[in-house]
Write a structure and sequence with these properties.
10% strand, 6 strands, disordered N terminus, alpha+beta
Length: 314
């Protein structure tokens, strides 16, 4: 198709302004425009113009108006849960990146989830965090007593169990409570429980590298690293949940967001105080001694019981 041009001519006080709007080339719109100004025999051509506020507003609307859950399968069907784990690597990486770079203009839930939540990322992020906390917590105790010749290392496997209970309960139960509050307050938000769980799961990713940094034997460094992690992940949650109560009173919205931040901060502080506070060698030795004594007593009791049964049989 030949190039078609539309010329708009404006005349004012001997000065000539000419807009050249380029039309279609090869069936597609070029979207280009030039402005020619002729004054005193000189021609000035402008081809680039700043984006208007209307364009920016349209872009923002297109990014935030897509929050309706697109999983149409019934919750009791296998296809429903299969859809939650149907996600590619690029999407997971983008959501991980977005959870650590909060934005005031576009919330994490609307920009990166947009009605397409997944459980793959949150599930494996929680599993990795549990393993990281459990292993690094044990290494903290080992490195603290590594120069003590009387110290005998005993793995604290119960830390893994406690970490799993804490992380998975926080990731899956808190969103249920949030959804209950939104329903109670009759919020017009389209957030589903899965949307909130997805947001919480990805927000915990930043604690994985920080748990490795907590191996550094420096309390100031540890608390600074932990504070940054709490700030980043807490901002992701707070900014995402704030619009859910915008149509409610401001006081309710502030209290609601403050409670979420307090719970999130308590989780991070618990990680540091429980899992990364080295257990004293005396406590470990006493625990080992108690366990050995209990095992020895049970063994003697079993021998006595077997002997008594044998004598009775004879």
């Amino acid at each position: 198709m030949a190039l078609s041009e539309t010329d708009l001519n404006f005349h004012d006080s001997g000065s000539k302004e000419l807009w050249n709007v380029e039309g279609e080339i090869g069936g597609s719109s070029t979207g280009a425009a030039t402005l020619n100004l002729e004054d005193d025999g000189k021609t000035h051509t402008f081809t680039e113009f700043p984006a208007s506020a209307a364009d920016e507003e349209a872009d923002e609307v297109s990014d935030t108006s897509n929050l309706i859950n697109e999983n149409k399968n019934p919750i009791w069907t296998f296809a429903y849960y299969q859809e939650l784990f149907n996600v590619n690597t690029d999407t997971v990486l983008q959501r991980i990146k977005g959870s650590m770079i909060p934005s005031r203009k576009q919330t994490f839930t609307r920009r990166y989830i947009g009605g397409r939540p997944d459980m793959y990322g949150p599930f494996w992020i929680c599993a990795t965090l549990v393993l990281s906390i459990g292993v690094c917590g044990n290494l903290t105790t080992l490195l603290t007593h590594i120069t003590d010749e009387t110290y005998h290392y005993t793995p604290q496997f119960e830390r893994l169990s406690i970490a799993a209970i804490m992380v998975y309960s926080y990731t899956f139960l808190i969103p249920l409570l949030i959804k209950g509050v939104l329903w109670w307050r009759k919020s017009s938000s389209n957030y589903s429980v899965v949307d909130i769980i997805c947001t919480y799961g990805y927000s915990l990713f930043v604690f994985i590298p920080v748990s490795i940094l907590l191996l550094v034997p420096s309390d100031p460094f540890d608390w600074i690293a932990l504070s940054i992690a709490i700030l980043l992940s807490g901002s992701c949650i707070a900014v995402s949940m704030w619009p859910a109560l915008q149509d409610d009173s401001k006081k309710v919205a502030v209290v609601f967001t403050a409670v979420l931040l307090i719970l999130h901060t308590a989780l991070g502080v618990t990680f540091r105080l429980y899992f990364f506070s080295p257990i004293s060698a005396q406590v470990i030795n006493n625990s080992s001694s108690i366990a050995s004594t209990s095992t020895h007593a049970l063994t003697e009791k079993s021998i006595i019981t077997i002997g008594t049964t044998t004598n009775t049989g004879e």
